[in-house]
Amino acid sequence: LADEIRGKQSTRGIRAPKRKTQPFVGVVTGSISDQPNLEACYKIFNDFGIPFEKGIKSAHRTPDAMAEYAKTSGHRGIKVIIAAAGGAAHLPGMVAAFSKSVPVIGLPIKPTIGDGWDSLVSMTNMPRGCPVLTVGVNNAVNAALGAARILAGWDEGVKAKLEGYVDNAAAESLENDRKLQQ
Ligand code: RP5
């Protein structure tokens, strides 16, 4: 993936039009108000060189667009979907229902009322046969890393980035311990 060409510099120094890279991850939120919570997720995908697409597909406000997006995601080459929603967090479950075979990671967003527990439980308590792989409330980092782990099964570049990430986190933790002892 890291080798995918995102844009090309022409020989005259004029920037050629960006070639659209096939996205492997679809990130959808129920509302524009959820988007700031996804920044950490987008950063990881950019750092890892994972092509992704993002969109707002509301299960309540735009159910037809949401259904169309989910139904066509697999045919369009999307390997995993992150669906983020808060409050009445139906989006990941509906996306999982319509996409049929694409893994869906549910990211509960803390709503304006409450701590997000209701959003979390609505994503974990799916009926048998329709799983939503759910991460913690507002934990966009784990949503991104979870998607990267799915892709790492068939992409060596993503696997190497992930292992580097884990090794860096270990080194940082050991360094924090060392500092604490001083
Ligand atoms: C959910 O309702 C969205 O995912 C969002 O978290 C929440 C509130 O949406 P807004 O009223 O801010 O658009 O569907």
What would you say this structure looks like, in words?
By secondary structure, the chain is an alpha/beta fold. The chain has a single domain (25-181), classed as Rossmann fold (3-Layer(aba) Sandwich). The chain contains 6 helices and 5 strands; from the N terminus they run βαβαβαβαβαα. A 5-stranded parallel β-sheet has the order 2-1-3-4-5, with helices on both faces. The longest helix has 26 residues, at 156-181. It is globular, with a radius of gyration of 18 Å. Bound molecules: 5-O-phosphono-beta-D-ribofuranose. It comes from Lepraria neglecta. This is Phosphoribosylaminoimidazole carboxylase. In the C-terminal section; belongs to the AIR carboxylase family. Class I subfamily.
State the share of residues found in helices, binned by percent: 40-55%
Report the C-alpha radius of gyration, rounded. Answer: 18 Å
What overall form do the CA principal axes indicate? globular
CATH topology: Rossmann fold
By secondary-structure content and strand pairing, the structural class works out as alpha/beta
Unreliable sequence segments: 2-11
Mean pLDDT: 92
Q: Please tally the β strands and state the result.
A: 5
Q: How are the strands of the largest sheet arranged? A: 2-1-3-4-5
CATH class (first level) name: Alpha Beta
Total separate domains: 1
In what range is the share of β-strand residues? 5-15%
* Helix run count: 6
What's the helix-strand series? EHEHEHEHEHH
End-to-end Cα distance, whole Å, is 42 Å
Keywords: ATP-binding, Decarboxylase, Lyase, Nucleotide-binding, Purine biosynthesis
Protein name: Phosphoribosylaminoimidazole carboxylase
GO molecular function: ATP binding; metal ion binding; phosphoribosylaminoimidazole carboxylase activity
Organism: Lepraria neglecta
